[in-house]
Design brief:
CATH topology of chain A: Rossmann fold
Largest interface: A-B, 59 and 59 residues
Number of strands of chain A: 5
Low-confidence stretches of chain A: none
Number of domains of chain A: 1
CATH architecture of chain A: 3-Layer(aba) Sandwich
Shape of chain A: elongated
Oligomer: homodimer
Strand content of chain A: 5-15%
Protein backbone atom coordinates (compact mmCIF):
# COMPACT_ATOMS: atom_id res chain seq x y z
CA UNK A 1 0.00 0.00 0.00
CA UNK A 2 1.11 3.56 -0.69
CA UNK A 3 1.43 5.17 2.75
CA UNK A 4 2.10 8.62 1.31
CA UNK A 5 -1.20 8.49 -0.55
CA UNK A 6 -2.95 7.21 2.57
CA UNK A 7 -1.63 10.22 4.49
CA UNK A 8 -2.75 12.63 1.76
CA UNK A 9 -6.22 11.09 1.84
CA UNK A 10 -6.27 11.40 5.64
CA UNK A 11 -5.44 15.11 5.37
CA UNK A 12 -8.34 15.54 2.98
CA UNK A 13 -10.71 13.69 5.37
CA UNK A 14 -9.73 16.05 8.18
CA UNK A 15 -10.50 19.09 6.01
CA UNK A 16 -14.07 18.01 5.18
CA UNK A 17 -17.17 19.59 6.74
CA UNK A 18 -17.67 17.18 9.65
CA UNK A 19 -16.09 16.63 13.05
CA UNK A 20 -12.80 14.79 12.39
CA UNK A 21 -13.31 11.03 12.50
CA UNK A 22 -17.10 11.30 12.65
CA UNK A 23 -17.64 9.11 9.57
CA UNK A 24 -15.88 6.28 11.41
CA UNK A 25 -15.48 3.15 9.32
CA UNK A 26 -16.37 5.07 6.12
CA UNK A 27 -13.21 7.12 6.60
CA UNK A 28 -11.14 3.97 7.13
CA UNK A 29 -12.51 2.45 3.93
CA UNK A 30 -11.72 5.61 1.96
CA UNK A 31 -8.12 5.62 3.23
CA UNK A 32 -7.73 1.90 2.51
CA UNK A 33 -8.95 2.43 -1.05
CA UNK A 34 -6.64 5.42 -1.49
CA UNK A 35 -3.60 3.50 -0.29
CA UNK A 36 -4.22 0.46 -2.52
CA UNK A 37 -5.26 2.40 -5.61
CA UNK A 38 -2.36 4.80 -5.09
CA UNK A 39 -4.81 7.68 -5.56
CA UNK A 40 -5.78 10.12 -2.81
CA UNK A 41 -9.13 10.50 -4.58
CA UNK A 42 -9.91 6.79 -4.96
CA UNK A 43 -12.74 5.87 -7.29
CA UNK A 44 -15.00 3.00 -8.29
CA UNK A 45 -15.69 3.46 -11.98
CA UNK A 46 -15.62 -0.29 -12.53
CA UNK A 47 -16.42 -2.86 -9.84
CA UNK A 48 -15.96 -6.52 -10.68
CA UNK A 49 -17.76 -9.33 -8.85
CA UNK A 50 -16.32 -12.81 -9.39
CA UNK A 51 -18.06 -16.01 -8.29
CA UNK A 52 -16.19 -19.31 -8.59
CA UNK A 53 -18.00 -22.65 -8.47
CA UNK A 54 -16.59 -26.10 -7.75
CA UNK A 55 -17.64 -29.60 -6.71
CA UNK A 56 -16.17 -31.72 -3.94
CA UNK A 57 -15.47 -35.44 -3.53
CA UNK A 58 -16.01 -35.11 0.22
CA UNK A 59 -19.75 -35.17 -0.56
CA UNK A 60 -19.35 -38.98 -0.72
CA UNK A 61 -19.17 -38.82 3.09
CA UNK A 62 -22.72 -37.47 3.35
CA UNK A 63 -21.65 -34.00 4.52
CA UNK A 64 -24.38 -32.08 2.66
CA UNK A 65 -28.11 -32.80 2.31
CA UNK A 66 -28.19 -31.41 -1.26
CA UNK A 67 -26.96 -33.34 -4.35
CA UNK A 68 -23.88 -31.95 -6.12
CA UNK A 69 -26.05 -31.20 -9.18
CA UNK A 70 -27.25 -28.13 -7.27
CA UNK A 71 -23.90 -26.44 -7.91
CA UNK A 72 -24.45 -26.47 -11.70
CA UNK A 73 -28.13 -25.59 -11.24
CA UNK A 74 -27.17 -22.53 -9.20
CA UNK A 75 -24.57 -21.54 -11.81
CA UNK A 76 -27.36 -21.68 -14.39
CA UNK A 77 -29.46 -19.53 -12.03
CA UNK A 78 -26.60 -16.98 -11.81
CA UNK A 79 -26.38 -16.95 -15.60
CA UNK A 80 -30.14 -16.46 -15.92
CA UNK A 81 -30.07 -13.57 -13.41
CA UNK A 82 -32.28 -15.24 -10.79
CA UNK A 83 -29.97 -15.52 -7.77
CA UNK A 84 -29.43 -13.12 -4.87
CA UNK A 85 -26.01 -12.15 -6.22
CA UNK A 86 -27.56 -10.92 -9.49
CA UNK A 87 -29.92 -8.55 -7.66
CA UNK A 88 -27.18 -7.34 -5.31
CA UNK A 89 -24.78 -6.66 -8.20
CA UNK A 90 -27.47 -4.61 -9.97
CA UNK A 91 -28.24 -2.45 -6.92
CA UNK A 92 -24.60 -1.98 -5.89
CA UNK A 93 -23.15 -1.53 -9.36
CA UNK A 94 -20.93 -4.59 -9.89
CA UNK A 95 -20.20 -6.45 -13.13
CA UNK A 96 -20.74 -10.13 -12.35
CA UNK A 97 -18.78 -13.00 -13.87
CA UNK A 98 -19.39 -16.60 -12.84
CA UNK A 99 -16.65 -19.16 -13.42
CA UNK A 100 -17.63 -22.83 -13.17
CA UNK A 101 -14.55 -24.96 -12.55
CA UNK A 102 -14.92 -28.50 -13.95
CA UNK A 103 -18.19 -29.16 -12.14
CA UNK A 104 -18.54 -32.56 -13.79
CA UNK A 105 -15.19 -33.59 -12.32
CA UNK A 106 -15.38 -33.10 -8.53
CA UNK A 107 -12.20 -33.07 -6.47
CA UNK A 108 -11.21 -36.31 -4.73
CA UNK A 109 -12.55 -37.31 -1.29
CA UNK A 110 -9.90 -36.00 1.12
CA UNK A 111 -10.53 -38.81 3.60
CA UNK A 112 -9.00 -41.18 1.01
CA UNK A 113 -6.24 -39.00 -0.52
CA UNK A 114 -5.42 -35.43 -1.54
CA UNK A 115 -8.44 -33.48 -2.83
CA UNK A 116 -6.44 -32.19 -5.79
CA UNK A 117 -3.18 -32.79 -7.57
CA UNK A 118 -0.64 -29.98 -7.65
CA UNK A 119 -1.41 -29.52 -11.35
CA UNK A 120 -5.15 -29.21 -10.68
CA UNK A 121 -4.50 -26.71 -7.91
CA UNK A 122 -2.21 -24.63 -10.10
CA UNK A 123 -4.72 -24.71 -12.96
CA UNK A 124 -7.48 -23.40 -10.67
CA UNK A 125 -5.16 -20.72 -9.22
CA UNK A 126 -4.34 -19.56 -12.74
CA UNK A 127 -7.97 -19.53 -13.82
CA UNK A 128 -8.79 -17.40 -10.79
CA UNK A 129 -5.98 -14.99 -11.55
CA UNK A 130 -6.92 -14.78 -15.24
CA UNK A 131 -10.50 -13.87 -14.36
CA UNK A 132 -9.49 -10.59 -12.71
CA UNK A 133 -10.13 -7.55 -14.90
CA UNK A 134 -6.99 -5.41 -14.56
CA UNK A 135 -9.12 -2.31 -15.22
CA UNK A 136 -11.37 -2.92 -12.19
CA UNK A 137 -11.12 -0.39 -9.33
CA UNK A 138 -12.38 -2.92 -6.79
CA UNK A 139 -13.02 -6.68 -6.81
CA UNK A 140 -15.55 -8.66 -4.79
CA UNK A 141 -15.14 -12.42 -4.44
CA UNK A 142 -17.65 -15.19 -3.83
CA UNK A 143 -18.26 -18.88 -4.36
CA UNK A 144 -20.80 -21.67 -4.87
CA UNK A 145 -20.13 -25.34 -4.25
CA UNK A 146 -22.19 -27.99 -2.49
CA UNK A 147 -20.00 -29.37 0.30
CA UNK A 148 -17.68 -26.41 0.57
CA UNK A 149 -18.49 -25.46 4.17
CA UNK A 150 -16.85 -28.81 5.02
CA UNK A 151 -13.82 -27.92 2.89
CA UNK A 152 -13.62 -24.56 4.68
CA UNK A 153 -13.79 -26.05 8.16
CA UNK A 154 -11.09 -28.57 7.20
CA UNK A 155 -8.78 -25.81 5.94
CA UNK A 156 -9.30 -23.77 9.12
CA UNK A 157 -8.76 -26.74 11.45
CA UNK A 158 -5.58 -27.72 9.57
CA UNK A 159 -4.17 -24.17 9.49
CA UNK A 160 -5.27 -22.80 12.88
CA UNK A 161 -5.82 -25.92 15.01
CA UNK A 162 -8.40 -26.16 17.78
CA UNK A 163 -11.34 -28.51 18.05
CA UNK A 164 -12.75 -29.56 14.67
CA UNK A 165 -16.29 -29.08 16.02
CA UNK A 166 -15.60 -25.39 16.65
CA UNK A 167 -15.06 -24.82 12.92
CA UNK A 168 -18.17 -26.72 11.78
CA UNK A 169 -21.68 -25.34 11.32
CA UNK A 170 -24.88 -26.26 9.51
CA UNK A 171 -23.82 -24.93 6.09
CA UNK A 172 -26.74 -25.00 3.65
CA UNK A 173 -28.86 -26.83 6.24
CA UNK A 174 -27.30 -29.91 7.85
CA UNK A 175 -29.17 -31.49 10.77
CA UNK A 176 -27.37 -32.76 13.88
CA UNK A 177 -26.45 -36.04 12.19
CA UNK A 178 -25.13 -34.16 9.18
CA UNK A 179 -22.97 -31.96 11.42
CA UNK A 180 -21.57 -35.09 13.10
CA UNK A 181 -20.74 -36.55 9.67
CA UNK A 182 -18.93 -33.30 8.74
CA UNK A 183 -16.87 -33.37 11.95
CA UNK A 184 -16.02 -37.05 11.49
CA UNK A 185 -15.00 -36.63 7.84
CA UNK A 186 -12.79 -33.65 8.66
CA UNK A 187 -11.12 -35.47 11.58
CA UNK A 188 -10.31 -38.37 9.26
CA UNK A 189 -9.01 -35.97 6.62
CA UNK A 190 -6.72 -34.23 9.12
CA UNK A 191 -5.40 -37.60 10.28
CA UNK A 192 -4.80 -38.61 6.65
CA UNK A 193 -2.84 -35.41 5.84
CA UNK A 194 -0.77 -34.37 8.88
CA UNK A 195 1.89 -31.66 9.07
CA UNK A 196 1.28 -29.88 5.77
CA UNK A 197 2.66 -26.47 4.80
CA UNK A 198 -0.02 -23.82 4.07
CA UNK A 199 -0.19 -24.27 0.30
CA UNK A 200 -0.01 -28.06 0.63
CA UNK A 201 -3.12 -27.76 2.82
CA UNK A 202 -4.94 -26.10 -0.08
CA UNK A 203 -3.95 -29.03 -2.33
CA UNK A 204 -4.82 -31.80 0.14
CA UNK A 205 -8.04 -30.42 1.66
CA UNK A 206 -9.21 -27.55 -0.57
CA UNK A 207 -11.08 -27.33 -3.82
CA UNK A 208 -10.95 -25.61 -7.18
CA UNK A 209 -13.03 -22.58 -6.16
CA UNK A 210 -10.78 -22.11 -3.10
CA UNK A 211 -7.66 -22.17 -5.26
CA UNK A 212 -9.26 -19.83 -7.81
CA UNK A 213 -10.13 -17.33 -5.05
CA UNK A 214 -6.48 -17.41 -3.93
CA UNK A 215 -5.40 -16.79 -7.52
CA UNK A 216 -7.77 -13.85 -7.88
CA UNK A 217 -6.54 -12.31 -4.60
CA UNK A 218 -2.93 -12.55 -5.78
CA UNK A 219 -3.71 -11.13 -9.23
CA UNK A 220 -5.63 -8.24 -7.64
CA UNK A 221 -2.64 -7.51 -5.43
CA UNK A 222 -0.32 -7.34 -8.44
CA UNK A 223 -2.74 -4.92 -10.14
CA UNK A 224 -3.27 -2.82 -6.95
CA UNK A 225 -6.97 -3.63 -6.92
CA UNK A 226 -8.58 -3.61 -3.44
CA UNK A 227 -10.60 -6.75 -2.71
CA UNK A 228 -13.71 -7.43 -0.63
CA UNK A 229 -13.97 -11.01 0.58
CA UNK A 230 -17.33 -12.59 1.40
CA UNK A 231 -18.17 -14.86 4.34
CA UNK A 232 -16.81 -18.05 5.92
CA UNK A 233 -16.07 -20.03 2.77
CA UNK A 234 -14.44 -17.15 0.92
CA UNK A 235 -12.33 -16.15 3.93
CA UNK A 236 -11.33 -19.77 4.61
CA UNK A 237 -10.30 -20.08 0.95
CA UNK A 238 -7.58 -17.47 1.46
CA UNK A 239 -6.53 -18.77 4.90
CA UNK A 240 -3.62 -20.70 3.28
CA UNK A 241 -2.31 -17.36 1.94
CA UNK A 242 -2.68 -15.82 5.40
CA UNK A 243 -0.83 -18.76 6.95
CA UNK A 244 1.96 -18.46 4.38
CA UNK A 245 2.36 -14.69 4.92
CA UNK A 246 -0.40 -12.63 6.49
CA UNK A 247 0.62 -9.53 4.51
CA UNK A 248 -0.72 -11.25 1.37
CA UNK A 249 -4.23 -10.21 2.49
CA UNK A 250 -3.44 -6.58 3.38
CA UNK A 251 -5.35 -5.38 0.29
CA UNK A 252 -8.48 -7.29 1.33
CA UNK A 253 -11.50 -6.25 3.42
CA UNK A 254 -14.06 -8.74 4.72
CA UNK A 255 -17.57 -7.78 3.64
CA UNK A 256 -19.64 -9.47 6.34
CA UNK A 257 -19.45 -11.92 9.21
CA UNK A 258 -21.49 -15.04 8.57
CA UNK A 259 -23.68 -16.87 11.08
CA UNK A 260 -21.67 -19.97 10.17
CA UNK A 261 -19.86 -20.18 13.52
CA UNK A 262 -16.40 -20.83 12.09
CA UNK A 263 -16.35 -17.40 10.47
CA UNK A 264 -16.22 -15.35 13.66
CA UNK A 265 -13.49 -17.66 14.95
CA UNK A 266 -11.56 -17.33 11.69
CA UNK A 267 -11.82 -13.52 11.66
CA UNK A 268 -10.58 -13.45 15.23
CA UNK A 269 -7.62 -15.67 14.27
CA UNK A 270 -6.87 -13.30 11.38
CA UNK A 271 -7.33 -10.13 13.46
CA UNK A 272 -10.10 -8.86 11.20
CA UNK A 273 -13.46 -7.12 11.71
CA UNK A 274 -16.04 -7.56 8.97
CA UNK A 275 -17.88 -4.52 7.59
CA UNK A 276 -21.42 -5.90 7.99
CA UNK A 277 -23.06 -8.27 10.50
CA UNK A 278 -26.45 -9.26 9.08
CA UNK A 279 -26.87 -12.92 10.13
CA UNK A 280 -26.34 -13.97 6.52
CA UNK A 281 -25.04 -17.38 5.36
CA UNK A 282 -25.70 -17.50 1.62
CA UNK A 283 -22.31 -17.22 -0.03
CA UNK A 284 -22.24 -16.27 -3.74
CA UNK A 285 -20.31 -13.15 -2.73
CA UNK A 286 -23.53 -11.64 -1.37
CA UNK A 287 -21.97 -10.02 1.72
CA UNK A 288 -19.04 -8.71 -0.30
CA UNK A 289 -21.29 -6.98 -2.83
CA UNK A 290 -23.42 -5.44 -0.06
CA UNK A 291 -20.21 -4.04 1.40
CA UNK A 292 -19.31 -2.67 -2.05
CA UNK A 293 -22.33 -0.39 -1.69
CA UNK A 294 -20.87 0.88 1.59
CA UNK A 295 -17.51 1.49 -0.12
CA UNK A 296 -19.32 3.54 -2.80
CA UNK A 297 -20.85 5.70 -0.05
CA UNK A 298 -17.46 6.05 1.65
CA UNK A 299 -15.82 7.31 -1.54
CA UNK A 300 -18.73 9.61 -2.40
CA UNK A 301 -18.21 11.38 0.94
CA UNK A 302 -14.43 11.44 0.54
CA UNK A 303 -14.52 12.90 -2.97
CA UNK A 304 -17.73 14.94 -2.94
CA UNK A 305 -17.84 16.78 0.38
CA UNK A 306 -16.93 20.44 0.76
CA UNK A 307 -13.99 21.42 2.96
CA UNK A 308 -14.41 23.80 5.93
CA UNK A 309 -12.59 26.42 3.89
CA UNK A 310 -14.90 25.94 0.86
CA UNK A 311 -18.04 26.14 2.96
CA UNK A 312 -17.02 28.99 5.30
CA UNK A 313 -17.87 27.06 8.48
CA UNK A 314 -16.70 28.39 11.87
CA UNK A 315 -14.20 26.38 13.93
CA UNK A 316 -14.40 25.44 17.58
CA UNK B 1 -48.57 -3.43 10.38
CA UNK B 2 -50.40 -5.81 8.08
CA UNK B 3 -49.56 -9.29 9.41
CA UNK B 4 -51.29 -11.06 6.52
CA UNK B 5 -49.02 -9.26 4.08
CA UNK B 6 -46.00 -10.02 6.24
CA UNK B 7 -46.90 -13.73 6.11
CA UNK B 8 -47.33 -13.61 2.32
CA UNK B 9 -43.92 -11.97 1.98
CA UNK B 10 -42.41 -14.63 4.26
CA UNK B 11 -43.84 -17.38 2.03
CA UNK B 12 -42.24 -15.71 -0.96
CA UNK B 13 -38.86 -15.49 0.84
CA UNK B 14 -39.01 -19.23 1.57
CA UNK B 15 -39.64 -20.00 -2.12
CA UNK B 16 -36.57 -18.09 -3.37
CA UNK B 17 -33.39 -19.82 -4.62
CA UNK B 18 -31.40 -19.79 -1.36
CA UNK B 19 -31.37 -21.80 1.86
CA UNK B 20 -34.34 -20.50 3.91
CA UNK B 21 -33.26 -17.65 6.17
CA UNK B 22 -29.81 -17.37 4.61
CA UNK B 23 -30.22 -13.67 3.77
CA UNK B 24 -30.66 -12.99 7.50
CA UNK B 25 -31.36 -9.36 8.29
CA UNK B 26 -32.11 -8.61 4.61
CA UNK B 27 -35.09 -10.96 4.87
CA UNK B 28 -36.27 -9.25 8.07
CA UNK B 29 -36.08 -5.84 6.39
CA UNK B 30 -38.06 -7.09 3.39
CA UNK B 31 -40.82 -8.47 5.65
CA UNK B 32 -40.86 -5.27 7.72
CA UNK B 33 -41.26 -3.19 4.57
CA UNK B 34 -44.00 -5.51 3.27
CA UNK B 35 -45.97 -5.31 6.51
CA UNK B 36 -45.82 -1.51 6.75
CA UNK B 37 -46.41 -0.80 3.07
CA UNK B 38 -49.22 -3.40 3.01
CA UNK B 39 -47.63 -4.88 -0.11
CA UNK B 40 -46.04 -8.33 -0.26
CA UNK B 41 -43.77 -6.95 -3.00
CA UNK B 42 -42.64 -3.80 -1.18
CA UNK B 43 -40.88 -1.18 -3.24
CA UNK B 44 -38.79 1.97 -2.97
CA UNK B 45 -39.71 4.11 -5.96
CA UNK B 46 -39.42 7.27 -3.87
CA UNK B 47 -37.21 7.58 -0.78
CA UNK B 48 -37.41 10.81 1.20
CA UNK B 49 -34.59 12.02 3.48
CA UNK B 50 -35.58 14.77 5.93
CA UNK B 51 -33.07 16.73 8.01
CA UNK B 52 -34.37 19.11 10.69
CA UNK B 53 -32.16 21.82 12.19
CA UNK B 54 -32.61 23.75 15.43
CA UNK B 55 -30.71 25.86 17.92
CA UNK B 56 -30.60 25.44 21.68
CA UNK B 57 -30.49 27.86 24.61
CA UNK B 58 -28.55 25.30 26.65
CA UNK B 59 -25.47 26.42 24.68
CA UNK B 60 -25.32 29.33 27.17
CA UNK B 61 -23.98 26.73 29.64
CA UNK B 62 -20.88 26.09 27.51
CA UNK B 63 -21.91 22.58 26.50
CA UNK B 64 -20.47 22.75 22.95
CA UNK B 65 -17.13 24.09 21.69
CA UNK B 66 -18.72 25.36 18.43
CA UNK B 67 -20.75 28.59 18.14
CA UNK B 68 -24.46 28.21 17.32
CA UNK B 69 -23.85 29.93 13.97
CA UNK B 70 -22.49 26.59 12.77
CA UNK B 71 -26.04 25.21 12.62
CA UNK B 72 -27.04 27.75 9.94
CA UNK B 73 -23.67 27.37 8.20
CA UNK B 74 -24.18 23.62 7.96
CA UNK B 75 -27.74 24.15 6.65
CA UNK B 76 -26.23 26.33 3.93
CA UNK B 77 -23.72 23.53 3.26
CA UNK B 78 -26.62 21.04 2.92
CA UNK B 79 -28.35 23.42 0.51
CA UNK B 80 -25.14 23.83 -1.53
CA UNK B 81 -24.64 20.05 -1.72
CA UNK B 82 -21.36 19.94 0.19
CA UNK B 83 -22.18 17.86 3.27
CA UNK B 84 -21.88 14.11 3.87
CA UNK B 85 -25.67 13.73 3.71
CA UNK B 86 -25.76 15.14 0.16
CA UNK B 87 -23.26 12.55 -1.09
CA UNK B 88 -25.00 9.72 0.76
CA UNK B 89 -28.42 10.68 -0.62
CA UNK B 90 -27.01 10.70 -4.15
CA UNK B 91 -25.43 7.23 -3.85
CA UNK B 92 -28.37 5.66 -2.03
CA UNK B 93 -31.15 7.33 -4.01
CA UNK B 94 -32.90 9.61 -1.52
CA UNK B 95 -34.58 12.98 -2.15
CA UNK B 96 -33.20 15.33 0.51
CA UNK B 97 -35.14 18.16 2.14
CA UNK B 98 -33.60 20.29 4.89
CA UNK B 99 -35.92 22.17 7.24
CA UNK B 100 -34.35 24.90 9.35
CA UNK B 101 -36.55 25.64 12.37
CA UNK B 102 -36.24 29.25 13.56
CA UNK B 103 -32.45 29.11 13.86
CA UNK B 104 -32.26 32.77 14.82
CA UNK B 105 -34.55 32.09 17.78
CA UNK B 106 -32.93 29.31 19.89
CA UNK B 107 -34.98 27.47 22.48
CA UNK B 108 -34.69 28.64 26.10
CA UNK B 109 -31.95 27.40 28.45
CA UNK B 110 -33.60 24.46 30.24
CA UNK B 111 -31.57 25.06 33.41
CA UNK B 112 -33.63 28.28 33.85
CA UNK B 113 -37.06 27.21 32.57
CA UNK B 114 -38.78 25.06 29.95
CA UNK B 115 -36.88 24.88 26.64
CA UNK B 116 -40.06 25.49 24.67
CA UNK B 117 -43.63 26.58 25.19
CA UNK B 118 -46.39 24.13 24.34
CA UNK B 119 -47.24 26.28 21.32
CA UNK B 120 -43.64 26.20 20.07
CA UNK B 121 -43.52 22.43 20.53
CA UNK B 122 -46.78 21.92 18.67
CA UNK B 123 -45.65 24.19 15.86
CA UNK B 124 -42.44 22.17 15.40
CA UNK B 125 -44.36 18.88 15.56
CA UNK B 126 -46.70 20.14 12.85
CA UNK B 127 -43.86 21.36 10.66
CA UNK B 128 -42.23 17.94 10.96
CA UNK B 129 -45.45 16.19 10.04
CA UNK B 130 -46.11 18.55 7.11
CA UNK B 131 -42.66 17.86 5.67
CA UNK B 132 -43.43 14.16 5.06
CA UNK B 133 -44.19 13.39 1.42
CA UNK B 134 -47.23 11.08 1.52
CA UNK B 135 -46.04 9.50 -1.75
CA UNK B 136 -42.71 8.36 -0.26
CA UNK B 137 -42.19 4.59 0.09
CA UNK B 138 -39.64 5.05 2.87
CA UNK B 139 -38.49 7.99 5.01
CA UNK B 140 -35.09 8.58 6.60
CA UNK B 141 -34.73 11.11 9.40
CA UNK B 142 -31.79 13.18 10.58
CA UNK B 143 -30.87 16.40 12.35
CA UNK B 144 -28.36 19.20 12.79
CA UNK B 145 -28.13 21.46 15.82
CA UNK B 146 -25.15 22.65 17.84
CA UNK B 147 -25.82 21.55 21.43
CA UNK B 148 -28.27 18.80 20.64
CA UNK B 149 -26.24 15.91 22.06
CA UNK B 150 -26.85 17.63 25.43
CA UNK B 151 -30.58 17.85 24.66
CA UNK B 152 -30.57 14.15 23.76
CA UNK B 153 -28.79 13.06 26.93
CA UNK B 154 -31.22 15.17 28.98
CA UNK B 155 -34.25 13.53 27.31
CA UNK B 156 -32.83 10.05 27.90
CA UNK B 157 -31.93 10.70 31.53
CA UNK B 158 -35.39 12.15 32.19
CA UNK B 159 -37.25 9.31 30.44
CA UNK B 160 -35.13 6.28 31.35
CA UNK B 161 -33.29 7.35 34.51
CA UNK B 162 -29.82 6.15 35.44
CA UNK B 163 -26.68 8.19 35.95
CA UNK B 164 -26.58 11.36 33.84
CA UNK B 165 -22.92 10.69 33.00
CA UNK B 166 -23.88 7.40 31.34
CA UNK B 167 -25.95 9.29 28.73
CA UNK B 168 -23.30 11.92 27.97
CA UNK B 169 -20.52 11.72 25.39
CA UNK B 170 -18.22 14.06 23.51
CA UNK B 171 -20.76 15.10 20.84
CA UNK B 172 -19.07 17.16 18.11
CA UNK B 173 -15.83 17.21 20.13
CA UNK B 174 -16.11 18.25 23.79
CA UNK B 175 -13.02 17.84 25.96
CA UNK B 176 -13.21 16.51 29.54
CA UNK B 177 -14.21 19.93 30.90
CA UNK B 178 -16.89 20.24 28.24
CA UNK B 179 -18.28 16.82 29.16
CA UNK B 180 -18.39 17.89 32.83
CA UNK B 181 -20.29 21.05 31.85
CA UNK B 182 -22.80 18.92 29.89
CA UNK B 183 -23.37 16.60 32.86
CA UNK B 184 -23.75 19.52 35.25
CA UNK B 185 -26.19 21.39 33.00
CA UNK B 186 -28.32 18.28 32.51
CA UNK B 187 -28.38 17.53 36.24
CA UNK B 188 -29.59 21.06 36.92
CA UNK B 189 -32.19 20.75 34.16
CA UNK B 190 -33.53 17.50 35.60
CA UNK B 191 -33.73 19.08 39.06
CA UNK B 192 -35.56 22.09 37.57
CA UNK B 193 -38.17 19.88 35.76
CA UNK B 194 -38.99 16.84 37.91
CA UNK B 195 -41.75 14.29 37.40
CA UNK B 196 -42.78 15.14 33.85
CA UNK B 197 -44.94 12.99 31.57
CA UNK B 198 -43.21 11.90 28.32
CA UNK B 199 -44.50 14.67 26.06
CA UNK B 200 -43.95 17.28 28.78
CA UNK B 201 -40.31 16.14 28.78
CA UNK B 202 -40.07 17.03 25.09
CA UNK B 203 -41.43 20.53 25.90
CA UNK B 204 -39.21 21.15 28.94
CA UNK B 205 -35.91 19.62 27.76
CA UNK B 206 -36.19 19.07 24.00
CA UNK B 207 -35.83 21.29 20.98
CA UNK B 208 -37.55 22.13 17.74
CA UNK B 209 -35.75 19.53 15.62
CA UNK B 210 -36.61 16.88 18.23
CA UNK B 211 -40.31 17.82 18.09
CA UNK B 212 -40.24 17.93 14.28
CA UNK B 213 -38.74 14.42 14.15
CA UNK B 214 -41.58 13.20 16.40
CA UNK B 215 -44.09 14.88 14.07
CA UNK B 216 -42.54 13.25 11.00
CA UNK B 217 -42.60 9.81 12.66
CA UNK B 218 -46.29 10.18 13.48
CA UNK B 219 -47.17 11.45 10.00
CA UNK B 220 -45.27 8.56 8.42
CA UNK B 221 -47.20 6.12 10.60
CA UNK B 222 -50.51 7.57 9.43
CA UNK B 223 -49.38 7.23 5.79
CA UNK B 224 -47.95 3.67 6.34
CA UNK B 225 -44.48 4.84 5.40
CA UNK B 226 -41.64 2.84 7.02
CA UNK B 227 -39.03 5.04 8.71
CA UNK B 228 -35.29 4.69 9.26
CA UNK B 229 -34.02 6.66 12.26
CA UNK B 230 -30.40 7.82 12.45
CA UNK B 231 -28.11 7.78 15.52
CA UNK B 232 -28.23 8.97 19.13
CA UNK B 233 -29.83 12.35 18.63
CA UNK B 234 -32.49 11.13 16.23
CA UNK B 235 -33.36 8.11 18.39
CA UNK B 236 -33.42 10.24 21.56
CA UNK B 237 -35.77 12.66 19.77
CA UNK B 238 -38.43 9.96 19.53
CA UNK B 239 -37.79 8.55 23.01
CA UNK B 240 -40.75 10.60 24.35
CA UNK B 241 -43.00 8.76 21.86
CA UNK B 242 -41.52 5.42 23.00
CA UNK B 243 -42.12 6.35 26.64
CA UNK B 244 -45.71 7.35 25.86
CA UNK B 245 -46.45 4.10 23.97
CA UNK B 246 -43.66 1.98 22.57
CA UNK B 247 -45.85 0.77 19.70
CA UNK B 248 -45.62 4.27 18.20
CA UNK B 249 -42.17 3.32 16.87
CA UNK B 250 -43.09 -0.10 15.44
CA UNK B 251 -42.80 1.28 11.88
CA UNK B 252 -39.24 2.53 12.54
CA UNK B 253 -35.86 0.88 12.05
CA UNK B 254 -32.62 2.30 13.48
CA UNK B 255 -30.04 2.82 10.74
CA UNK B 256 -26.84 2.68 12.78
CA UNK B 257 -25.48 2.65 16.30
CA UNK B 258 -23.40 5.72 17.07
CA UNK B 259 -20.15 5.81 19.01
CA UNK B 260 -21.83 8.43 21.21
CA UNK B 261 -22.10 6.15 24.26
CA UNK B 262 -25.70 7.03 25.11
CA UNK B 263 -26.92 5.47 21.88
CA UNK B 264 -26.08 1.86 22.71
CA UNK B 265 -27.68 2.36 26.13
CA UNK B 266 -30.77 3.90 24.54
CA UNK B 267 -31.14 1.10 21.98
CA UNK B 268 -30.86 -1.42 24.78
CA UNK B 269 -33.58 0.40 26.74
CA UNK B 270 -35.77 0.36 23.62
CA UNK B 271 -35.02 -3.28 22.77
CA UNK B 272 -33.61 -2.36 19.37
CA UNK B 273 -30.64 -3.48 17.26
CA UNK B 274 -29.32 -1.00 14.70
CA UNK B 275 -28.68 -2.11 11.12
CA UNK B 276 -25.11 -0.78 10.85
CA UNK B 277 -22.27 -0.36 13.38
CA UNK B 278 -19.61 1.82 11.72
CA UNK B 279 -18.25 3.95 14.60
CA UNK B 280 -20.00 6.98 13.10
CA UNK B 281 -21.11 10.08 15.06
CA UNK B 282 -21.98 12.67 12.42
CA UNK B 283 -25.75 13.00 12.50
CA UNK B 284 -27.44 14.65 9.48
CA UNK B 285 -29.27 11.34 8.91
CA UNK B 286 -26.04 9.86 7.56
CA UNK B 287 -26.47 6.43 9.17
CA UNK B 288 -30.13 6.27 8.18
CA UNK B 289 -29.38 6.94 4.50
CA UNK B 290 -26.58 4.35 4.49
CA UNK B 291 -29.12 1.85 5.83
CA UNK B 292 -31.52 2.89 3.05
CA UNK B 293 -28.99 1.41 0.61
CA UNK B 294 -29.21 -1.87 2.54
CA UNK B 295 -33.02 -1.75 2.35
CA UNK B 296 -32.77 -1.30 -1.44
CA UNK B 297 -30.62 -4.45 -1.62
CA UNK B 298 -33.06 -6.32 0.62
CA UNK B 299 -36.02 -5.48 -1.63
CA UNK B 300 -34.08 -6.20 -4.83
CA UNK B 301 -33.49 -9.76 -3.56
CA UNK B 302 -37.08 -10.13 -2.36
CA UNK B 303 -38.63 -8.97 -5.63
CA UNK B 304 -36.04 -10.02 -8.19
CA UNK B 305 -34.88 -13.52 -7.24
CA UNK B 306 -36.13 -16.65 -8.98
CA UNK B 307 -38.04 -19.26 -7.00
CA UNK B 308 -36.84 -22.88 -6.74
CA UNK B 309 -39.72 -23.84 -9.04
CA UNK B 310 -38.77 -21.17 -11.64
CA UNK B 311 -35.10 -22.19 -11.63
CA UNK B 312 -35.55 -25.98 -11.52
CA UNK B 313 -33.21 -26.45 -8.54
CA UNK B 314 -33.11 -29.80 -6.70
CA UNK B 315 -34.23 -29.98 -3.06
CA UNK B 316 -32.46 -31.60 -0.11
Amino acid sequence: ADEGTRAAAARRQDSLTKPPGSLGRLEEIALFMAAWQGNDRPRIAKAQALVFAGNHGICAQGVNPFPQEVTAQMVANFEAGGAAINQLCRVNGADLSVIALDLDRPTADFTAGPAMTEAETLDALNRGAAAVDPQANILTLGEMGIGNSTISAALCAALFGGEVADWVGRGTGSDDDGVRRKIDAIARGLARHPGLAPIETLVALGGREQAAICGAVLAARAARIPVILDGFICTAAVAPLFAADRRLLDHCLVGHVSVEPGHRKLLSAMGRTAILDFDMRLGEGSGAVLALGIARSALACHNGMATFADAGISGA
